[in-house]
Design brief:
With about 375 residues, this protein is of the alpha/beta class. It has helices at about 10-20, 30-40, 40-45, 50-55, 60-70, 75-85, 135-150, 165-175, 195-205, 220-230, 245-255, 270-280, 290-295, 320-325, 335-340, 345-355, and strands at about 90, 110-115, 125-130, 155-160, 180, 205-210, 235-240, 260-265, 285, 330-335, 360-365, 370. It has 3 domains: about 10-80, DNA polymerase, domain 1, CATH 1.10.150; about 100-295, Rossmann fold; about 320-370, Orthogonal Bundle (Arc Repressor Mutant, subunit A). Helices cover about 40% and strands about 15% of the residues.
Length: about 375
């Protein structure tokens, strides 16, 4: 195991190191895991010799210099103080409160920013997601699912977005249940703005979670990354309403890659808002008519948390490897990748998230992608 400069051995000192390494631009979930595997702890990676850092797969000479110089995007101690002031905290992968289900996914977040309590929903968790543009039918189904899952003691997970997400969260809260919202921005950013009151209630009766530092804006690229956490926290994902290009289908794709169960609510034939759900059902998702379909004995597999989460993410799925082979030095558009691979656009988007986090590809403006030649596959 390599050695380098270390911080204090106190829990507070170690937490500053974890947050500090996360606040190095260019250190994502995969690189973070490899650095911890190589050096034992984040504090030893920060300020380690350049040659030792560059020996870690995926760490370029420039990134090694940034890590050694501790060029944080923001001061980690000030970040911790801001989190404490707003009633939030940081949970690292070594923390006993880190969700055991999430620890099993490909490239789990090295740390989570949390307002509220995750504990009540650690085992019985179900995600309910869907379109931002809803129909009366979709709203009714989201309300019933949120209410009935909460009454059954299930923690409802969703993305705090407009539409189905917010409706399901609100129904769970009204039923006195526990609900977790995963956001694609910093915890200090309210998005959408009208959900300020909902976020406050969830922090009191459940939790609001992000893997993004404070101040992170709700950029479009953040949401596919956030979607993998929604499914990763859940034993199953229910899609209520979704068009063929809905981000909810990305969440469903992540769920399948993570070994979770996927349920879809059928809708009226010919309704574009139900087309994505019908596609999922044709592809093998379970048809869901009520919460009872997911609550009945045997509907959800038993879960045994890993004794020790592996710091290095598992290998790419075969689909990811196939997609990687189609990406070279010349920029290629997402639509071209979908056509050449034979995968749906939502599948390609979900797979590209994993490839980006693994440091294997880079995204350029306009949804173009190139191979990252600094990393070998």
């Amino acid at each position: 195991m390599e050695t380098g400069n270390t911080s204090q051995g106190s829990p507070a000192g170690r937490l500053v190191d974890w947050l500090g390494l996360r606040l190095i631009p260019g250190v994502g979930s995969v690189i973070f895991a490899r650095l911890v595997e190589s050096f034992g702890e984040p504090g030893r990676a920060l300020g380690a010799p350049l040659k030792r850092l560059q020996a870690v797969r995926g760490v370029s000479p420039e990134l090694a210099r940034v890590i050694r110089a501790k060029q944080f995007s923001t001061d980690p101690e000030k970040e911790l103080a801001r989190l404490e002031k707003m009633g939030a905290r940081v949970i690292t992968r070594q923390d006993p409160d880190y969700p055991p289900l999430l620890a099993t996914i490909y490239a789990p977040p090295p740390l989570l920013f949390v307002r509220g309590s995750l504990a009540p929903g650690r085992e019985q968790t179900v995600a309910v997601v869907g379109s931002r543009r809803t129909t009366p039918y979709g709203r009714r189904m989201a309300q019933e699912l949120g209410r009935d899952l909460a009454r059954a003691g299930v923690s409802l997970v969703s993305g705090l977005a407009r539409g189905i997400d917010s409706i399901a969260h609100q129904a769970a809260l009204q039923a006195g249940g526990h609900t977790v919202g995963v956001v694609g921005c910093g915890l200090d950013v309210v998005y959408p703005p009208e959900n300020a009151g909902l976020m406050k209630r969830m922090a009191e009766q459940g939790a609001v979670v992000s893997e993004f530092p404070l101040g992170t804006r709700p950029l479009a690229a953040n949401f596919p990354i956030r979607n993998r956490v929604i499914s990763g926290l859940s034993r199953a994902v229910v899609v209520v309403e979704a068009g063929l290009r809905s981000g909810s289908l990305i969440t469903a794709r992540h769920a399948l890659d993570q070994g979770r169960e996927v349920f879809a609510v059928p809708g009226p034939v010919g309704n574009p808002g139900s087309a994505g759900c019908h596609q999922l059902i044709r592809q093998g998702a379970y048809l869901l008519e009520s919460a009872q379909d997911i609550l009945e004995p045997g509907a959800l597999p038993l879960f045994s948390p890993p004794a020790t989460p592996a710091p290095e993410p598992a290998g790419l799925p075969p689909q990811g490897q196939k997609l990687l082979e189609l990406i070279g030095d010349d920029p290629v558009h997402l639509d071209v990748l979908a056509r050449q691979s034979g995968f749906k656009a939502q599948e390609v988007t979900a797979l590209l998230v994993n490839l980006e986090m693994a440091g294997l590809v880079q995204q350029l403006p306009g949804k173009y992608f190139v191979r990252d030649n600094q990393v070998t596959a």
